[in-house]
Amino acid sequence: MGTLFKNGTIITASDMIQADVLVEGEKVTLIGSNIDSKGHEVVNCKGKYLMPGGIDVHTHLDLSFGGTYSNDDFDTGHKAAAFGGTTMHIDFAMQPKGGSLHDALKIWRKKAELAQVDYSFHLGITDLRDEVMDEIPTLADEGITSLKLFMAYKNVFQIDDKTLYRAMQQAAKHGMIVMVHAENGDVEEQLRLQLLSEGKTDPIWHYYSRPPEIEGEATNRAVVMSGMTGCSLYVVHMTCDPAIEAMRRGRAQGFPVMGETCVQYFHVTRDKHLGAPGFEGAKYVCSPPIRNLHEQGTLWQAVKDGTLQAVSTDHCDFWYEGSVGPWQEWSKAHNGGDWAEFEAQDPTYRRPGKDLGKGDFSKIPNGLPGIEDRMMVMWHLGVNGGKISPTRFVELNCTNPAKIFGMYPRKGTISVGGDADIVVWDPKKSHTISAKTHHMRVDYNLYEGMKVKGMPTQVYLRGKKVVDGDNWYGSNGSGQFIARKPYAPVL
Ligand code: DUC
Ligand code: ZN
Ligand code: ZN
């Protein structure tokens, strides 16, 4: 017996067609008109769209960062993702200081034991010793074909130009893609120290420590290195004109360069949100910083004209009102300590959050929630707002992420032989986004009060229903690691 999705309209990156979809086991086995329903469970999709499950290629679940850990893990973050129509994500497994890339994988595989939806890892390189260079090709054998390097976060994740260049040379040799967080971390450090020394400590000053110029400069540097090495480059969370212009120049020269922006950059602004009175602006501290209405126009143009290929979230959420003291004391007493061990003692205890940065913007943990909201907000602002077509919506949120990161057509489309990750989408259903009802483990929502029209009603992961309305049917451990292929296309 299979599951037969009847009377719906399938949206792929190229077409909108009325057809039935038959799912048997974990795969789509037939697409056609009037498929006989005998022996199958029928899902009536009249008036609904059928889309491939969303893929968010940029998340940080349970990340040790900024003196704490991001809130959502592979349990809560996965449920939230699925309620929003995302059935797969790629998280960043960060190389521990002094450790190997496989040490990172070990840590992240452990986190992923909770997985409720499908996932993969990008390998975040922080220390490219010779033996780490040699390790890179072995990742591809294990289905990990993307590396990430940070050009910012001095003394934390930041690498130097030589490291980036060498990583690109090695990646190019093995058909892997290099991703960069592009901001000039040295200039950021200088600006930050200067601002703090002038007593400028409110959240809004975070913006001025990371102006568009330092994003544009670093993006340009990475784009040029991509041209020199022939390495495929994917620039994450692009936000502003100088960065977009650098990307356009590289593409015009035929360099293998691609980029994404994140959904929040289409909504929150420096002036209204980051500049809110008191400490409220801390809720919106992320890097690169949120910009203004002008940049929103730039980004819509870039996703429309193909300068950018994907939209992700950079989901990395922290409590607005966390709890600062006990974890710090415990971790001091345990020489760093393991967060899970600490948290298990009192599961109601909140991880320290944005409140770490009261009185000093540079101590506010960087990151925002969004894994649940991406598809609904992009549909609402993009499709309902007349900015992008439904097919481009699918391309940006599902298909291109799968192609760029080497898992198409298994993921990212609805086609015979592909995984049956299917979102039944009701374009007429309205929903008011709120922290009171969302599934992310965080006490605020960037889109609080936004009334969106269009949302998932049922979500299937490899043929199994995980979401139906407000009900959850997934389970820990049923999310799978998805092995990815090298030599993915440059779009
Ligand atoms: N930016 C953020 O805002 N959070 C996580 C990491 C990053 O680069
Ligand atoms: Zn980043
Ligand atoms: Zn990130």
Topology:
Blueprint: E1 3-6, E2 9-11, E3 16-18, E4 20-24, E5 27-32, E6 41-44, E7 49-52, E8 54-59, E9 64-65, E10 68-69, H1 76-83, E11 86-94, H2 101-111, E12 118-124, H3 130-141, E13 146-150, H4 161-173, E14 177-181, H5 185-197, H6 205-209, H7 212-229, E15 232-235, H8 241-252, E16 257-262, H9 270-274, H10 293-305, E17 310-312, H11 325-333, H12 339-344, H13 374-384, H14 390-404, E18 422-432, E19 451-461, E20 464-468, E21 471-472
Parallel strand pairs: 1-6, 2-7, 8-11, 11-12, 12-13, 13-14, 14-15, 15-16, 16-17
Antiparallel strand pairs: 1-4, 2-3, 4-5, 7-18, 9-10, 18-19, 19-20, 20-21
Helix pairs in contact: 4-7, 7-8
Description of the molecule:
This protein has 491 residues and is of the alpha/beta class. The chain has a domain at 54-318 and 353-375: TIM Barrel. It contains 14 helices and 21 strands. It has helices at 76-83, 101-111, 130-141, 161-173, 185-197, 205-209, 212-229, 241-252, 270-274, 293-305, 325-333, 339-344, 374-384, 390-404, and strands at 3-6, 9-11, 16-18, 20-24, 27-32, 41-44, 49-52, 54-59, 64-65, 68-69, 86-94, 118-124, 146-150, 177-181, 232-235, 257-262, 310-312, 422-432, 451-461, 464-468, 471-472. The strands form 4 sheets. An 8-stranded parallel sheet has the order 8-11-12-13-14-15-16-17. Strands 3-2-7-18-19-20-21 form a 7-stranded mixed sheet. Strand 13, helix 4 (161-173) and strand 14 form a beta-alpha-beta unit. It starts with a strand and ends in a 19-residue tail after the last strand. The structure holds dihydropyrimidine-2,4(1H,3H)-dione (DUC) and zinc ion (2 copies).
